[in-house]
Specification:
This protein is α/β, with parallel strands linked by helices and 429 residues long. The protein has helices at 6-17, 72-82, 93-105, 118-133, 158-162, 173-176, 187-197, 222-232, 253-257, 283-286, 305-321, 323-345, 370-373, 378-390, 411-428; strands at residues 39-43, 46-49, 54-57, 111-115, 137-141, 179-182, 201-206, 236-240, 263-267, 277-281, 350-354, 357-361, 393-394, 403-404. The protein folds into 2 domains: 3-70 and 322-428, Alpha-Beta Complex (Aspartate Aminotransferase, domain 1), CATH 3.90.1150; 72-320, 3-Layer(aba) Sandwich (Aspartate Aminotransferase, domain 2).
Length: 429
Amino acid sequence: MDAVSRSSALFAEARRLIPGGVNSPVRAFRGVGGEPFFVDRAEGGRIWDVDGIEYVDFVGTWGPAILGHAPQVVREAISTTAQRGVSFGISNPLEVEMARTIVGWVPSIQKVRMVNSGTEATMSCIRLARGYTGRDLIVKFEGCYHGHVDALLVKAGSGALTHGQPDSAGVPASVAALTLTLPYNDFEALRAVFASRGAEIAAVIVEPVPANAGLYLPRPGYLELMRELCSAHETVLIFDEVMTGFRLAKGGYQERCGITPDLTALGKVIGGGLPVGAFGGREAIMDQLSPDGPVYQAGTLSGNPLAMAAGLAQLREMERLNGWQRLEEIGANFEAGVRRTLKQIGKNYNFRRIGSMFCLYFTEGDVWDLASAQHSDKGLFGRFFHGCRERGVYFAPSQFEAGFLCVAHNEVDLEKTERVTAEVLAGLS
Ligand code: HOZ
């Protein structure tokens, strides 16, 4: 009889104590079958599970680990800061330094407030947009995921999509009715919703690069049209840059595409691996927040010194290394490897990449929206995932999550990944 692995034993206990055995659904592996492993430690581009198995990791704690796992600068910042106290509930200088950094780097942000997660950031943007405009309707896009906010769990991506619950139970129909959902990249649908209901729409919220149904890109002119229609109808345009912020460029995707949203939600990279989110934007809108304005928003741990120190250390190190340029190079090398492999096995699977984010869809059709992303063969993806995992390469356990490269991914990691993916893909046909 096989000995039970430590991961298996932990998962059995976790299932008795934690719903589904996990603290966030995608981690349960339901999108690919089998059982998740438990991590013992992580460093650079690699993780080791509790049974001592090593993996090249492309989840990167779902985005925050842009430098790689546990970078020295972040560890030192946390431990030095902790010597002076771990939470105050009173303003501390690091909050001002973080605000100065965000306002200095992100083109559209004039004022910013710190929160504890991306979900809090998007939730607060929605309330603020409604308070500012005095309107109720929200427009979102199929397959985009903005955290587990009631109003935004409508045709949502990420775990909600992976587990077949894009419209979550527990969201009152009256709340969901205030969210209008459009197919992404559909110019006509966007024009039509503004033509019929423009005066009632408080906000349009969008992942400018949707990365919760895999990864696809905006068609040329699509975000420009969104900006134009929002301005014409005095609707607040919210960019959810929780994934793309500080990752696709120093100033986020908005710096790259040159479009100025009214509000931006941030998270992940900005916390250096600690729980952090932020939202910010035009001063006139941000000034509606309490205590200056009537829109309430608060948080005991918001601006926590450890999280501020970790995030600032990571951002400064990215700046020092010109990490965004490095990620472009690593991304290009990674993509070249994937394309060589696809050519070798004679498949034209759709590989999407922008900077350090990527997705391989198991379909030869083009992918521009949720409907086309769903053409991917999930059975093949599951076999690909397990084949790679068994050989020490770990991708997200769902077709509908993006992969993340980090500054610490080196040639050895990329060579191993190319060899493993080539072997696994060749075995799938
Ligand atoms: N929904 C998250 C990624 N888009 C997953 C978070 C997690 O499981 O930690």
